[in-house]
Amino acid sequence: MRVNFTVNGRPQEADDVWEGESLLYVLRERLGLPGSKNACEQGECGSCTVRLDGVPVCSCLVAAGQAEGREVVTVEGLADHARQRSRGGSRGVPLDEAKAWQAGGPGSRTGEEAELSTVQQAFIDAGAVQCGFCTPGLLVAADEMLEHNPDPSDADIREALSGNLCRCTGYEKIMDAVRLAAARQSGEV
Amino acid sequence: MDFLRPASWEEALAAKAEHPTAVPIAGGTDVMVEINFDHRRPEYLLDLTRIGDLYEWETGEDTVRLGASVPYTRIMEHLRAELPGLALASHTVASPQIRNRGGVGGNLGTASPAGDAHPALLAAGAEVEAESAARGTRLIPIDAFYTGVKRNALQPDELIRAVHIEKADGPQQYSKVGTRNAMVIAVCAFGLALHPATRTVRTGIGSAAPTPVRARAAEEFLNAALEEGGFWDNRKIITPSVAKRFAELCSGACNPIDDVRGTASYRRHAVGVMARRTLTWTWESYRGARRATEGAA
């Protein structure tokens, strides 16, 4: 079947989709957007977290057909989504650009050359990325929390990220990163 | 596999009548796991996410009619006062991502003994609104709904439209045992509701029998003990021996198995502990010393 939906602000069309396929599979294998990670396939790890009509969900548990007509934001479109939120006027992210996305440049502030959201930059600066596999899901979940809770307590952060597993960092650097993003977002640092 | 996408409830009922083997899918948090792992290859998937009515609820005089697909997140946010037990249970469901998609209709449809909503529904009192194109609507009492491990009272042509849950007339509590505080399937769970209006107590036990069950002997014992001691009026602290006996009878209502999550004897023990604790929490709340929505997962 064919699925028509909006991905990162641009209309997209996926063809030859199997009816039992997940949204995650469509994003990765049909549209070539591998940012959302495939790990547990049962909603345990949160690595595949995307926004579906604004709401964070595990894309591995959304049937492809359920995404028909809906709006999806993946980690590839997170910077654009954040820009739209703060300044208005998103242009959306074309598929080619999303596929080619990378945080370029050397040094600790690698994000300076790429367009990063506050959360993404904070993850780099706080050293919250180790192997990186859980990072896209954590970024999408953390960004969504900061959207409606700009001044989260540690308990709020832990709750918001409780569906995202990291097996490298022990979460402390991730907590640091989200606190940093919250502070930067509210102009404290 | 065919993906059926009804735009209305009537279309969904017609599709289910035409294809009784069709598997309904809403939040997908159970169904997609089975498909991803190739445990299930249904001939038809019946997508219910286009049917807006299923995501709405109505608060009536005595009950809340909760649409089958109302996500747990909404229950936590909006129905904490009317359905405190279910709101607490909702908060123990998996993670934010899962709570944003999953709802009580799916818990009932799957009818796993470990489903988090069941003990809260049993304790509060509820009826499942099932409907078929051929025979219309019927209300299935929650006590008659669970018929076996992952089996329920639904006919093949029926879909769950809503759940009618009695609004709380007293404190309710919910407790769940797991290895961590999020993203965990219950080792066992316990729901308890005080019903001062009828001077009764109701319970619900999860993951400690082939189906979710009530501890009826424990309820009868406690109802009699509370009545006899005049507790509903004098609001005295529950006698420790009464709480202890209630806990023992709740343990006795279990018929658990040994599995990777815990042994049968651990489950029996833990259910007794949760029974005593939730009784204390709710009773202290009834006595006015503690807020009804305070609790622990």
From TrEMBL, chain A:
It comes from the Bacteria. It comes from Streptomyces lucensis JCM 4490. One of its GO terms (molecular function) is oxidoreductase activity. Residues 1-78 form the 2Fe-2S ferredoxin-type domain. This is Oxidoreductase. Keywords: 2Fe-2S, Iron, Iron-sulfur, Metal-binding, Oxidoreductase. Coiled coil: none annotated.
UniProtKB/TrEMBL annotation, chain B:
Keywords: FAD, Flavoprotein, Oxidoreductase. Residues 1-170 form the FAD-binding PCMH-type domain. GO terms for molecular function: FAD binding; oxidoreductase activity. It holds the Pfam family CO_deh_flav_C. This is Carbon monoxide dehydrogenase. It comes from Streptomyces lucensis JCM 4490. The lineage of its organism: Bacteria, Bacillati, Actinomycetota, Actinomycetes, Kitasatosporales.
